[in-house]
């Protein structure tokens, strides 16, 4: 029994170039390379003309005279990566980052909560496109190796599921270069011995592969060719923060509606903060507009707190500070994160303790909502409002 295909390999397509095309509409659909003297990334339009990563810019221009060269913007790429990885961590607790633009995700055990691995992959791709504005390819398979090969085969902007009963049918016809760890030198050794496909390598005895390629490399590649890859997804350490966001769609929202949505987010996050026995030192507000531009504002408090009203007041001030006429700018997403979390017992109270009454109110409201549901008690400002104000809730993260 080979098990189920529950490993996702998610890989952003032509990452740096895609960020440039997202941020500058004039670059969309045109050949773009990122770099100075050497190509750091190439759009798929440039790749179609033979441009490749690590090629000299001069060579790239010779292959594609109309190519547009843009300098790297590492801060923009890092910000995009953080946004995408937040979605990964919203999807599953088991995320193994490989680089700035790719990761493995283990989604086994989420079927009852989130659907099949394929359904989870479909939603992940939709969220990355909608929330970050970037294309991403995803491979789904039983092992990390197969999932990575599947994501490469699905590019650009695709999804490929390799079910256990068709693993050999998928993998064995592929060139040996698709094996993880086969570079130019190893490929040449295999080619000299008449081995050009993964299936041909799998048909060898392990001892033969070890003799040709060395004991360690030969054993590893032969095992992959025979579909043996026992490595689990190793969850990487996450930043200590919690957050939530809402996708707002394209309709205009008034300032009062945005304030109401922000209130809903803070209410939920503050309760989660108290449920885990934590306090927060930094409030971060993130906004995305219809043209994919973004605004981020944050404030670090003098002392950590878990008080709803304090955190809400900070978030509302951050929202007001972005733009006096913010409702006219077409906000498509609003998100809040609480960062620099501290365990409740580690926070030293200030004197005088003038926050006790508010703390009791928070505790009482939390108890009511735990027993009777989140809608049992609500704010007067939210009564009678169009349900549309409760914009689609996106998965939250810890």
From TrEMBL:
Family, per entry? Belongs to the DNA polymerase type-Y family.
Keyword presence, Protein biosynthesis: no
Where along this sequence does the record place binding of Mg(2+)?
Answer: 11, 101
The protein's gene is named dinB
Q: What is this protein called?
A: DNA polymerase IV
Q: Which EC numbers characterise this protein's activity in its record? A: 2.7.7.7
Q: How many cofactors are bound and how?
A: Binds 2 magnesium ions per subunit.
Instruction: Identify which cofactors the protein needs according to its UniProt entry.
Output: Mg(2+)
NCBIfam families from the entry?
PRK02406.1, PRK03858.1
- Organism in which the protein naturally occurs: Demequina zhanjiangensis
């Amino acid at each position: 029994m080979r098990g189920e295909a529950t490993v996702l390999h998610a890989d952003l397509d032509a990452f740096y170039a895609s960020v440039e095309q997202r941020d500058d509409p004039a670059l969309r659909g045109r050949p773009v390379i990122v770099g100075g003297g050497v190509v750091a990334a190439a759009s798929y339009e440039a790749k179609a003309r033979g441009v490749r990563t690590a090629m000299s810019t001069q060579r790239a221009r010779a292959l594609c005279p109309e190519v547009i060269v843009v300098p790297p913007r590492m801060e923009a790429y890092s910000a995009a990566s953080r946004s995408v990885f937040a979605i990964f961590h919203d999807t599953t607790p088991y995320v193994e980052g490989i680089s700035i633009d790719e990761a493995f995700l283990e989604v086994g055990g989420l079927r009852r909560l989130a659907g099949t691995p394929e359904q989870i992959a479909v939603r992940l791709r939709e969220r990355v496109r909608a929330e970050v504005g970037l294309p991403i390819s995803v491979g789904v398979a039983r092992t990390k190796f197969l999932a990575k090969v599947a994501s490469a085969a699905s590019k650009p902007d695709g999804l490929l599921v390799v079910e256990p009963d068709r693993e050999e049918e998928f993998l064995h016809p592929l060139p040996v270069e698709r094996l993880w760890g086969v570079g130019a030198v190893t490929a040449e050794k295999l080619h000299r011995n008449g081995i050009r496909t993964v299936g041909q390598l799998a048909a060898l005895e392990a001892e033969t592969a070890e003799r040709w390629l060395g004991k360690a490399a030969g054993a590893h590649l032969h095992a992959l060719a025979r579909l043996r890859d026992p490595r689990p997804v190793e969850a990487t350490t996450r930043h200590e923060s919690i957050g939530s966001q809402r996708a707002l769609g394209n309709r205009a929202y008034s300032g009062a509606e945005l304030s109401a949505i922000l209130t809903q987010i803070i209410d939920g996050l503050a309760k989660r903060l108290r449920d885990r026995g934590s306090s927060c030192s930094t409030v971060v507000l993130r906004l995305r507009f219809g043209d994919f531009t973004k605004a981020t504002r944050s404030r670090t408090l003098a002392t950590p707190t878990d008080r709803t009203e304090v955190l809400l007041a900070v978030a509302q001030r951050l929202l007001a500070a972005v733009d006096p006429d913010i409702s006219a700018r077409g906000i498509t997403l609003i998100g809040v994160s609480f960062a620099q979390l501290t365990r409740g017992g580690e926070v030293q109270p200030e004197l005088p303790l003038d926050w006790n009454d508010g703390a009791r109110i928070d505790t009482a409201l939390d108890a009511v909502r735990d027993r009777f549901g989140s809608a049992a008690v609500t704010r007067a400002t939210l009564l009678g409002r169009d349900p549309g104000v409760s914009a689609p809730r996106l998965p939250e993260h810890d």
